[in-house]
Each structure stands twice: as C-alpha cells, then as structure tokens.
C-alpha cells in the first residue's frame, strides 16, 4: 500500500486561500445540521397534523393523509429532491419560480433540500403519530368526549400528550435518519458534510483522511441524537408502560 | 403556470429507460442476495456467546447505521479500486462503478438486514434450540434445519419491505454517474432539455413499482400470518 497519510492536510490553506480545509469541513457540518434541524421542525409540525388527520372520523381528511403518505414513501428521496429542484420552480405561478432560480444558489439549494426533507420525513412521522394515537385504548377518546370535551379538545388534552410520549423511540430513529438523508443535498450543489469531504479529497488527494473525518463527524451526530432522544425518553416515559430504560 | 409540457421525448427514450431499469433491478437483486447472506452471518455473530464476536458485529451494524448511504457509496467508489490495486500489485487495473456500487450496497444493507434477521431469530422460542441440541444436532445443524427456516418464514415481510427501501435507495448511484433508471432519465432529460417531464415520469414509475410491491407484501403478510 503506497498511500501517504497526512493528517496535517486539514490545516492547509484551500486553493482560494480564504480558509483551511478544516474550516470547509466545519462549514459542511454546519449545513448538514442546519438542513436536518429545520427539516425536522417542519416534518414534526406537518407530520403531526397529517397523523391526526389520519385518525379523525372524516373519510376525506383521512384519505388525503393516507394518499400523502403513500406518495411520499414510495418515491425515492433523490427523485423527490430533483422534483423540488428542477420541476416545481417551472410550475409555480406569478414568477415565483423565476425568483427561486435567480436567488443565491447556496440559499436556493438549502431551501430546496430543507423543504424536500421536511415533506419527505413528514410522511414517516405521520405514520408514527397515527400508530401512537391508535395504540391508545379506545376508551380514552370516549372518556374525553363523554366529559364534554369537543373533538379538538380531546386530541389536545387527552390523546396527543399520551401518543407523543409513547412514540418517542421511533421518533428518535427518524431524527437520526434525517441527518443521514440530508447527504443527498449534495446532488443539487449544497456543500454539506459529504460534499465537503469529497471536495477536500479532490483538491488534496488525501481521500482517506477526508472520508474518515466525515465518517467520524456523522457518528458524532448520531451519538448526540441518540443521547438527546434517550434523555427525552426517560424524562417523558409514561409510568406503567413497558419500554425505555435498558437496551 | 406558464410551462408548456412536451412529453414527446419519452417514447423514443423507452429502450434506454428499460436498460436503465434493468441495471437498477440487477443491482437490487444482487445487493439483496448478498446483503441477506452477509446479514445472516452478522446476525449469527451478534447472537454468538463469544463476546468479541458479538461486539464486533454490533460495532459493524452501528457504524453503518450511523453514516449516510451516499458517503458509503463514495467510500467504496474510492476503496474498491484502491484495495484491488494493493492486493494484485497491478496499478493499471480498473473496476467499473457498477461493482463498487454493488459492494457498497451489499455491505451497507447487510447491517440493516442483520437487525431484521436477529429479531427474527430471537423470536424463535428457546426450547427449539434446546430440542435440537437434545436430538444431538450440532450448532450448525440446529441453525440450518431448525431455527433459520422458521425465523425466515416470520421475517419475509420485513425483509421484503427493506428490499423495497433498497430499490428506492439504488437511485443514489446517480452520484457516481451510473446509468440506472434515474441516471438514464436524467441524461435523456438533459439531452433534450426536458428535465421536468423526465423527472416527473421517473417519479411516477418509482411510485407505481414501490406502491404495488408494498401492496403485494401486505397481501403476503396477511396470508403468511401464523
């Protein structure tokens, strides 16, 4: 093996001289976290709304949410990203598409990937919220309405607080997934972590160092996400329910 | 809505698209087979009573479940030719991106299949293992004739669902410019300046295939349910 290891490569200046390769890596990490976190917030809101829609006694709302889930679960993420990036701007009315195409390319790529991840992850969260609500005994809903609560009140005060506490573990693995999924954003030119490590490898030929650094950073992200979710799980575990605690 | 749709470039591209789908499906079947075989070995390692073996397999699974598939594809795109050159000493040797992608998918998916198979094996009552040993079977025989056949029957729906995800994930070979279904659609779209139509068409094709496959898996699950 004639590979020249050189971990000092990260301290070298980049070709344009404005930064070190380490700074490139850190900015990549920043974009990965930014896309994933903003996508997560959007997915959480949208996924909860859709999950509730799937369980309400209205076949139009439930049908709409079910169709949404099938569409967003059965098209590959990359194809969805290309659709948001290449197709949607062409179809937007009132010159909105033009505005998207002429805006700062980095911000455009960020906006597109964050929206794409948000819609995509919402479909997955919808199923988990629905499973959480369905796992509650039927009596909970009846008891809520029997007490004179309206249906929205029953959801707000009885069903959702319980459902969310039950689904924290599967939400946690989805939270990890959104960080990993954010890597596809490199295909539309967002310089997130994977893209930066590739760029470093191309400029310096120190591929091993660049990829190992990216791998370690992804592992750190996952470990952080896991510990946050484990903390939430312990804190909000419903007394008397199995689960939580050990592995 | 000022966009004028023009679907005329799709009929002429059908032969290329079918070729692309052929590559996608070849990749899927080979990666699935390799992933399940390797995943079974990993699952047996994880359940082994030898601590170093089970923690090695555990570390493997956790590593590959923490990093994005795109990064894994890039890793192997770089590693496979590198290792081959180092092993053979022949500096001129080349490997097509197809083989490096295939190895990447096998290695990556094995981690996910491993977790499904481990759960499947663990769902078999302990008494079955004891009974097999009591009959005088060795470990290998007990696994081969008693445990694995029952475990696989239980986990077929989950393995197939994971394979539908794998089918969708194969589109990521776009990043190393392989001409899979999405790669062909994108090349034709760029050639004709019809990216909008080609991507919409690709989305519909993926949707129809994955949706019908998951519908079939659901039917199968109902029939196989014990």
Explain what you see.
The complex is a heterodimer of chains A (247) and B (226). In chain A, 74% of the residues lie in helices and 0% in strands. With 247 residues, chain A is mainly α. Chain A has one domain: MetI-like fold (Orthogonal Bundle), CATH 1.10.3720.10. In chain A, helix 1 packs across helix 8 (168-181). Chain A is globular and about 75 Å long. The model of chain A has no long low-confidence stretch (mean pLDDT 88). Helices cover 81% and strands 0% of the residues of chain B. Chain B has helices spanning 9-46, 51-66, 69-88, 97-122, 126-134, 139-169, 181-192, 195-224. Chain B is built from eight helices and no strands. In chain B, helix 3 (69-88) crosses helix 4 and helix 4 (97-122) crosses helix 6. With 226 residues, chain B is mainly alpha-helical. Classes of the chains: A mainly alpha (247), B mainly alpha (226).
Keyword list:
heterodimer, A: 247 residues, mainly alpha, MetI-like fold, 10 helices, B: 226 residues, 8 helices, globular
CATH homologous superfamily identity of chain A = MetI-like
- Which sheet architecture does the biggest sheet of chain A show? none
Tally of DSSP β-strands of chain A: 0
Uncertain regions of chain B: pLDDT < 50 for 5+ in a row?
Answer: none
Radius of gyration of chain A: 22 Å
Alpha-beta content class of chain A: mainly alpha
User: Of all protein chain pairs, which has the greatest interface, and how many residues does each chain bring to it?
Assistant: A-B, 41 and 34 residues
Q: What name does CATH use for the topology of chain B?
A: MetI-like fold
Mind telling me the CATH superfamily name of chain B?
Answer: MetI-like
Sequence stretches where pLDDT stays below 50 over 5 or more residues of chain A: none
Return the CATH topology of chain A: MetI-like fold
User: Beta-strand percentage of chain A?
Assistant: under 5%
């Amino acid at each position: 093996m004639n590979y020249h290891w050189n971990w000092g490569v990260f301290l070298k200046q980049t070709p344009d001289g404005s930064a070190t390769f380490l700074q490139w890596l850190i900015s990549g990490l920043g974009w990965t976290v930014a896309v994933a976190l903003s996508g997560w917030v959007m997915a959480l809101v949208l996924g909860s709304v859709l999950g509730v829609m799937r369980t309400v006694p209205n076949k139009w709302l439930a049908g709409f949410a079910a169709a949404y889930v099938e569409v967003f679960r059965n098209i590959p993420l990359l194809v969805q990203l290309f659709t948001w990036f290449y197709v949607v701007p062409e179809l937007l009315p009132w010159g909105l598409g033009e505005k998207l195409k002429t805006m700062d390319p980095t911000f455009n790529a960020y906006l597109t990937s964050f929206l794409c991840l948000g819609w995509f992850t919402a479909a997955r969260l919808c199923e988990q919220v629905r499973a959480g609500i369905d796992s509650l005994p039927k009596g909970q809903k009846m008891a809520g309405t029997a007490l004179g609560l309206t249906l929205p009140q029953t959801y707000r005060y009885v069903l959702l607080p319980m459902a969310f506490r039950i689904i924290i573990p599967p939400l946690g693995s989805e939270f990890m997934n959104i960080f990993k999924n954010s890597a596809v954003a490199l295909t539309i030119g967002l310089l997130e972590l994977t893209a930066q490590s590739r760029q470093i490898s191309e400029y310096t030929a120190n591929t091993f160092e660049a990829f190992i650094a990216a791998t370690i950073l992804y592992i750190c992200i996952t470990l952080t996400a896991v510990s946050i979710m484990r903390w939430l799980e312990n804190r909000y575990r419903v007394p008397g329910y199995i689960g939580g605690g050990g592995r | 809505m000022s966009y004028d749709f023009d679907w005329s470039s799709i009929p002429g591209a059908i032969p290329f698209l079918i070729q692309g789908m052929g590559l996608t499906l070849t990749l899927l079947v080979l990666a699935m087979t390799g992933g399940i075989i390797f995943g079974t070995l990993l699952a047996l390692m994880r359940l082994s009573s030898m601590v170093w073996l089970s923690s090695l397999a555990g570390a493997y699974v956790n590593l590959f479940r923490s990093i994005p598939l795109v990064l894994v594809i890039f890793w192997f795109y770089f590693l496979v030719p590198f290792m081959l050159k180092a092993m053979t000493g022949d500096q001129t040797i080349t490997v097509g991106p197809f083989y490096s992608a295939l190895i990447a998918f096998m290695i990556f998916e094995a981690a996910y299949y491993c977790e499904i198979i481990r759960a499947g094996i663990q769902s078999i009552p302990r008494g079955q293992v004891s009974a097999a040993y009591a009959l005088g079977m060795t470990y290998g025989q007990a696994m081969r004739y008693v445990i694995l056949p029952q475990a696989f029957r239980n986990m077929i729906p989950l393995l197939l669902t994971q394979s539908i995800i794998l089918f969708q994930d194969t589109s990521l070979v776009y990043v190393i410019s392989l001409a899979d279904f999405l790669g062909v659609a994108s090349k034709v779209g760029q050639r004709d300046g019809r990216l909008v139509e080609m991507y919409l068409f690709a989305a519909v094709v993926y949707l129809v295939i994955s949706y019908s496959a998951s519908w079939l898996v659901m039917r199968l699950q109902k029939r196989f349910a014990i």
